[in-house]
């Protein structure tokens, strides 16, 4: 049950919890087998920012938008214009995501490629991305590498590691003082024999070697099924190397389903580690004890309506974050010290079971927001209007659905 004190505790936790939504989550995406188009899907960067602004207006906790250098910037859409469009829609540009996987020259990899020209192009693109960040006032550059090999013997695993060390350090050297570099790991796909940055340990090592402003990015979908993600989070927190998250859920691997749709308890356990860390570093009311973590969504909704899927994910994240804030840390510590295993686990389960809806509603009310962002979105008619406008614009521009124009 949520008594007044717990309600207050949950509401306070939400105050510092901001979630970045990705520009690519608003456009037509699919799987490698095909795309199913949505009339309301964003056509260009301006549409994506408008949709992100709409999500932020409804949820009150998504003030920034992750952008993709290749998909969101062009001559027609330079950094200054993107930043301005974001501002117009009530959001700001968040993490900058270079694209090191689509160009033909990256067939054998980017930072890890045996081809010096490909490596040079990759580094140049990353340094350009760092500069874009500086131009738009974003302090996060987020790196994900598709690099790896498909067959045993294809390339030297150690040589590739060394190439990564060198280029990441060079990329780090381009950062300004307030910029951070995030290094994301993924066990497989698109490389299927070995992936250069395959797990948190490799990302940790590379980030450490790159420089003092590099951290590890944990994408919740990038683990083998049996892996204990909250342990990874706990270790990275303890080493002060946790830079951020990419939220999504999965039944198998990188399925990019909406957060908590398959296993909400997993997400709760991750948040539990973050609240526990903050508690140990300043007590329950010390808000500045929370480490700086970039909470970002990385999902590709090819069947669910895009904005609805985003709102579901954001509100699910808030719900689970609030629940995890309800764990009684002192009581838990007592159970742990005395070896009361069942009571310790029950402390977590009690928090997980608690219905935090009144806390979410109170938090939203305090900000003049509707109690249920999803219902408010449906009532707004935004998606229907976007479908109409964007269908008309596609006709006028003579472009086919699914194409994305920056
Ligand atoms: C790919 O699997 C990673 O999750 C990336 O973080 C992300 O999907 C990509 O950078 C989007 O372009
Ligand atoms: Zn990701
Ligand atoms: Zn992924
Ligand atoms: Zn994913």
From TrEMBL:
Quote the Gene3D superfamilies the UniProt record gives.
Answer: Divalent-metal-dependent TIM barrel enzymes
Q: Which residues form the Xylose isomerase-like TIM barrel domain?
A: 79-270
Biased composition range(s): Basic and acidic residues? 380-389
Tell me one GO biological process term: rhamnose catabolic process
Q: What is its EC number?
A: 5.3.1.5
Q: Where is this region: Disordered?
A: 380-406
Q: Name one GO molecular function term.
A: metal ion binding
Keyword Metal-binding assigned to the entry: answer is yes
Keywords, in A-Z order:
Isomerase, Manganese, Metal-binding
In terms of InterPro entries, this protein maps to: L-rhamnose_isomerase, Xyl_isomerase-like_sf, Xyl_isomerase-like_TIM-brl
Domain of life of the source: Bacteria
Isomerase as a keyword? yes
Return the PANTHER family for the record: L-RHAMNOSE ISOMERASE
Q: What is this protein called?
A: Xylose isomerase
This chain's source organism reads Pirellulimonas nuda
**Highest classification ranks of the organism:** Bacteria, Pseudomonadati, Planctomycetota, Planctomycetia, Pirellulales
Q: Provide the gene name from the record.
A: xylA_2
């Amino acid at each position: 049950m949520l008594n007044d004190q717990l309600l207050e505790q949950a509401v306070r936790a939400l105050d510092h919890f901001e979630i970045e939504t990705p520009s690519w989550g608003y456009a037509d995406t699919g799987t490698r087998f095909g795309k199913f188009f949505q009339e309301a899907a964003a056509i260009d960067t301006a549409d994506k920012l408008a949709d992100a602004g709409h999500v932020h207006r409804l949820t009150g906790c998504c003030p920034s938008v992750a952008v993709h250098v290749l998909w969101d910037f062009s001559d027609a859409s330079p950094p200054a214009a993107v930043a301005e469009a974001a501002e117009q829609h009530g959001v700001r540009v968040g993490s900058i995501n270079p694209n090191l996987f689509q160009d033909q020259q990256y067939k054998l990899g980017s930072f890890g490629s045996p081809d010096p020209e490909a490596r040079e192009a990759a580094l140049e693109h990353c340094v350009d991305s760092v500069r874009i960040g500086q131009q738009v006032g974003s302090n996060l550059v987020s790196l994900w590498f598709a690099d790896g090999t498909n067959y045993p013997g294809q390339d030297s695993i150690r040589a590739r590691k060394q190439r990564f060390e060198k280029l990441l350090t060079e990329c780090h050297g381009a950062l300004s003082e307030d910029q951070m570099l995030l290094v994301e790991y993924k066990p497989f796909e698109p490389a299927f024999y070995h992936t250069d940055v395959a797990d948190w340990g490799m990302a940790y090592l590379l980030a450490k070697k790159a420089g003092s402003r590099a951290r590890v990015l944990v994408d919740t979908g990038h683990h083998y099924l049996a892996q204990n993600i909250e342990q990874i989070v706990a270790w990275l927190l303890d080493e002060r190397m946790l830079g951020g998250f990419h939220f999504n859920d999965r039944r198998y691997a990188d399925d990019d389903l909406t957060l908590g749709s398959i296993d909400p308890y997993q997400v709760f356990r991750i948040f539990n580690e973050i609240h526990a860390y903050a508690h140990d570093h300043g007590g329950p009311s010390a808000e500045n004890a929370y480490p700086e973590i970039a909470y970002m969504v990385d999902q590709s909704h090819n069947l669910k309506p895009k904005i609805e899927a985003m709102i579901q994910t954001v509100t699910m994240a808030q719900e689970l974050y609030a629940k995890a804030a309800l764990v009684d840390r002192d009581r838990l510590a007592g159970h742990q010290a005395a070896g009361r295993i069942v009571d310790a686990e029950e402390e977590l389960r009690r928090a997980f079971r608690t219905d935090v809806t009144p806390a979410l509603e109170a938090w939203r009310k305090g900000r003049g927001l509707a109690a249920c962002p999803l219902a408010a979105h449906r009532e707004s008619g935004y998606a229907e209007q976007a479908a109409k406008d964007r269908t008309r614009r596609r006709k006028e521009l003579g472009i086919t659905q699914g194409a994305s124009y920056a």
